Amino acid sequence: MVQINVSNKEITLKVVYYGPALSGKTTNLQQLHAMMEPASRSKMLTIDTKDDRTLYFDFLPVEFSTAGGFSVKMKLFTVPGQVMHKSTRKVVLAGADAVAFIADSQRSAASANAYSWRDMEANLKANGIDFDWLPKVVQFNKRDFPDVKPLSEIRQQWGDIATFPGIAVRGEGVFETFRELMRVLYRSLDEKHDFAAKFSVSEEDFLKGVLCNFQPSGDSVDG
Question: Is residue 12 within 8 Å of residue 73, measured between CB atoms?
């Protein structure tokens, strides 16, 4: 969970992109990386596995300073979706402050989405993280594929959880998903840690600090 180092005036947050294999987790992070201003873009770390493209990223961290003099660092990770990598997913979820669940919009992927969601819930609980209170958003990617679920049906099924349509290979929905995740993350931090009062950072300041180095019209990537 959130790491607060008072002596060094550093706050470190961990965000994880989760979902079934090849749903677009990797592509989302590649797109966010491509949207960043070159001057603030750090190297993206990638580990390929035999059966899935990416084990994890730690590609930013996004960093900004608050009015109270604290430095906020945001580390983003993704996990391998293949069933065999369950232990790795559990490790990567440890200490997560927020999760973006990337689902596949195709009707044929419904069971894989459901399995991955249950797997995420189990792994969070195994790490001592309250699933119900963890900030999370859902992106239904691959809207350009045939036989996708209508958005009205998706939103009816997912209820109160914020859901976003996406075509990650074109960059569509990527920034919107990330921005909303940052919004719900801040509100959670403020509720749990009195963030605004203790660190002199409002929701507006937090979002501005995190998002100021992004250009949402950034070039898309293949994947």
Answer: yes
Residue 11 lies in a domain: yes
Cα-flanking dihedrals φ and ψ of residue 111, to 5°? -70, -35
- Structurally, how many domains does the chain consist of? 1
CATH of the domain at 126: 3.40.50.300
* 217 in any annotated domain: no
Burial 138-167 (b: 16+ CB within 10 A, else e): bbbbbbeeeebbeeeebeeeeeeebbbbbb
- Asked if residue 223 belongs to a domain, the reply is no
The pLDDT of residue 223: 40
Question: Rounded to two decimals, what is the model's pTM?
Answer: 0.89
pLDDT tens readout for residues 119-135: 999 999 999 999 999 99
Token pair for 216: 């949402």
Cα distance between residue 20 and residue 3, in whole Å: 28
Q: Which amino acid is at 167?
A: I
